[in-house]
Amino acid sequence: MEKEILRISGLTKLYQGKAALNHVSISIKQGQIYGLVGNNGAGKTTLMRMITGTAFWDEGSLVLFGVEQSEKMGRERKRLGSLLETPAFFENMTGRQNLEYYRIQLGIPGKKCVEDLLLQMGLQDAAEKKVKGYSLGMKQRLGIALALLNHPDFLILDEPINGLDPKGIIEIRTILLKLREEKGVTILISSHILAELTNIATHFCFMDRGKVLEEISKEALEEKCQTYLELKISDGEKMAVLLEQHFPQIRYRVYPQNVIHIYGILDKAQEISQLAVQNGIGLMGVTQKNMNLENYYMNLVDEKGEAKRGNIAC
Question: Going by C-beta distance under 8 Å and a sequence separation of 6 or more, which residues neighbour residue 30?
Answer without folding.
Answer: 2, 3, 4, 5, 184, 186
